[in-house]
Each structure stands twice: as C-alpha cells, then as structure tokens.
Amino acid sequence: MADSPNCDLKSLSPLQLFERVTEQGEKVRALKAGKAPKDEIDAAVRLLLSLKLSYKTTTGQDYQAGLPPKDLVLINNGTTKEEDEDLVDPWNVQTSNAKGVDYDKLIVRFGSSKIDTDLINRIERATGQKPHHFLRRGIFFSHRDMDQVLDAYENKKPFYLYTGRGPSSQAMHVGHLIPFMFTKWLQEVFDVPLVIQLTDDEKYLWKDMTIEKAYEYARENAKDIIACGFDVNKTFIFSDLDYLGTSAGFYKNIVKVQKHVTFNQVKGIFGFTDSDCIGKISFPAIQAAPSFSSSFPQIFNGKENIQCLIPCAIDQDPYFRMTRDVAPRIGQPKPALLHSVFFPALQGAQTKMSASDPNSSIFLTDTPKQIKTKINKHAFSGGRDTIEEHRKYGGNCDVDVSFMYLTFFLEDDDRLEQLKQAYTSGELLTGELKKVLIETMQPLVAAHQERRKQVTDEIVKQFMTPRKLAFEF
C-alpha cells in the first residue's frame, strides 16, 4: 500500500461511513432545531446527502438509521472489513476483542511492515546491544523504513529521533511512559539527537480548556518526561505554543505542508467535517513539521537532508502517512516510524483509559496503597470463576490485564515466561499474579516520583530552550 491513502470518503470502511452518516444526520437536526442560518443548514444537508451516496456506493445498500452494515463488503484496496473491526485513529481506539486490537490486520490496513526477527537481529548487530524487551516481545511491532535508517547508520550517516506527547492532563499514567522508555533506549544505543513535541495547541483546539491550562499541562508533563532520564545535552523538548513563534524554519515547513495537503485530504484522513474549527484542520501540518530537520536549525545547522525516526503508538500513523506523502514534494526525506501497540486499561483491552477515570490506569502520582487497591480491585482477570476451575483449566494470559502489564514492565524474560506457564497451567492464581504486578509497579512508580522531584523549573527551562545539542552537523 502506498503512503498516500485514498483521501476521500472511499477510504472509509462501511461501518465508518455508517457512523459518519449517523453523526451528520444528528448535526442537521441540531442545526434545524437551533434555527441556524439557512446557508449553514444547506451545507450540512449537502454533506449528509454526499455521505449517504458514498455509503450506498460502497455497500450497495441504502442507509437505514439504526441498522449498521452486517455483510462483508469489498473496499477500495481489495481487502474485506467486518462490522466489528477495530476502530483506530489519533483520537479513538475501540475493539470488541478481549485480547485487544488485531495488530496483524492493522498492519495490512495501514500498509506498514511487521517488525520481524530479521529486523530485530539487524538492530542488535548495528548497535551491539541486546534489543529492548519492547522489541523482543512485540510491543513495538510495526515499522516504516526502519531498514533505511539502519542503512544510513551503518554508512555513518546521521538521523534523529522525534516523538511527542499531547498534554491533556497534569497527571500522566504508566502507559504514557512506553514511547519515552523506548525512545530513551534508542537514543542511547544509536547516540542521536532527540526532539520531543508537546502539542499543547492541539489540546486547546480539541479539549475544553484554556490556552494557559494547556501550556501549564505541557510544562508539568515535561517534568515527567525528563524524569525518564533523558540527557539535556542531546534532547530538545518544545511546546508548540512557545516554539512556533520563535522558529522561522519550523513555521516555513508548516506552511509547505499546508500548501500540499487539500481540505478533502485531511477530511478523508482524519474525518474532519465542515463543522470543525479551522485550527483542527490545519493542525496535522504542525505535527508533521518536526519530521524535517530544517525545523530545528539550531540543532542541525540548517541541513534539510537528515532523516527522522519516529517511535509512537500506531494510532498516530495517519499524521505521518500524510507527512510521508508530502515530504518528497517539498524536497524532504520521508520520516521512518516504529509503531507500538496500545497500553490496555485496567478494566481490559476493550475499555478506554481516561484521565477523568482514576481507576482506568495506574497514574504516576499514585501512592503504593492506591496502586495495590487499583490492581486488586480493577485489573481484569483471565482467571476462572472458582479456584477449583482455575487449578483444573488454568488462566488466560491473552486477556489478563495483570499479565499484559507485566509484559510491558517486567524486564526479566525468564521470569515472565515462568509466570505465563504457571498461570496458564493453573498453578498460579489470579491473586498471586496480581501480587507480582503490585510488587513490580510500586517501586517503578516510586522511583519515577523521586526522579521527578529533582526536576526543577530551571531544568525544564534548559530542556525547552532552543539551542545547539552535543552533535555536529
């Protein structure tokens, strides 16, 4: 599959089209009920009719409210999609499967490449280091052009890392650490510069918060990121609200991307509607710009040909499919990507973590007692209903959240395999598995809290000041 998706309604699945028609119908009714201006109502009706036509063209059926498509339908890339297919975009992750998202299907849908044993072995040969357990266990499972990054590295050509965080709340949870833990490892084994984007502008546009609050969250989240152990001499952390106004190179790249992406394309990629504010529509160009080294002239001495590698969760991939499509047209190298799986909520992979629900995850501000209570009370179990049944039939590690969390945070491969065998055989009970997780998470969170206490406002300022890093370009 090419990096450029069909950026129109044909790129949506039948179920996604059904949901878009339903949503647009509700908007039309709301506009009419609120006696909105006639031209606004007419525009909404035209979009509704267009959506209904696309739905019929794709499914061969007329849209009927409350009756989503049930049959398998051939879509434009020749694959099939089911009505209960996982929904994955930059703002929503939904699955009906207790095991979580089907990542093999997602690779096919997104057109990325699986991180296989050969690639992992090549990373080990290139770095001389044992691959991170996130690689060994398939937590980072998909990539775009990682082989090209390794080609460059082996030929002594530079590259840099870029990742980010959308600061939607003051308290981050342990799942937010995953990309930063892996990025830190990548930075250390490859010895390359790193830029970290805090998209406080995005959160202001999407959330019900003031600009001041979004910026405050960015600085607070920066403290948690710094507490992961990044080197201030090799890492630049920036707030969009700050940096965009000070860097001509950054803004020029934003404008170049904006010129080469149409409104129809962003609607097709991100699902924007005519009712979305123009800030949302233009935001993808801001997330694209750090992919280009010329956005950071203070680091790269104005060079435009340095490739970027982006470790991120796969829900962010639509931004960078767009970026990779635009890059050659503005004379820039395509960024490469490493995709991670999603971190499950305590209540199970089918539920969504939320900053407004303190029981949906373990937060970096939680006390040891809170961690113990949350795991014991809320962690979804793959165990049986009774001890007798569990001893006889064993537990299911594929759906057990305690085991999933240990896959992320227990570094000892042998210990993890022992736990899996014991739980699957019924030798280890759910309560005992939860106890192992509690004993793993309590010191991990406590150590993070201690490191965060050492991160002063002055240290944050050092990381967030545009400057030359410890590299020559």
Automatic annotation (TrEMBL):
Span of domain WHEP-TRS: 13-69
GO terms for MF: ATP binding; tryptophan-tRNA ligase activity
Pfam family, one: tRNA-synt_1b
Database matches in Gene3D superfamilies: HUPs, S15/NS1, RNA-binding, Tyrosyl-Transfer RNA Synthetase
Keywords tagged on the record: Aminoacyl-tRNA synthetase, ATP-binding, Ligase, Nucleotide-binding, Phosphoprotein, Protein biosynthesis
EC number: 6.1.1.2
Superkingdom, taxonomy of origin: Eukaryota
Entry-linked PROSITE patterns: AA_TRNA_LIGASE_I, WHEP_TRS_1, WHEP_TRS_2
Enzyme class, spelled out: ligase
Protein's UniProt keywords contain Nucleotidyltransferase: no
One GO BP: tryptophanyl-tRNA aminoacylation
UniProt-listed InterPro entries: aa-tRNA-synth_I_CS (IPR001412), aa-tRNA-synth_Ic (IPR002305), Rossmann-like_a/b/a_fold (IPR014729), Trp-tRNA-ligase (IPR002306), uS15_NS1_RNA-bd_sf (IPR009068), WHEP-TRS_dom (IPR000738)
Assigned GO CC terms: cytoplasm
Family to which this protein belongs: Belongs to the class-I aminoacyl-tRNA synthetase family.
Name of protein: Tryptophan--tRNA ligase, cytoplasmic
Source organism: Rhagologus leucostigma
Gene it is expressed from: Wars
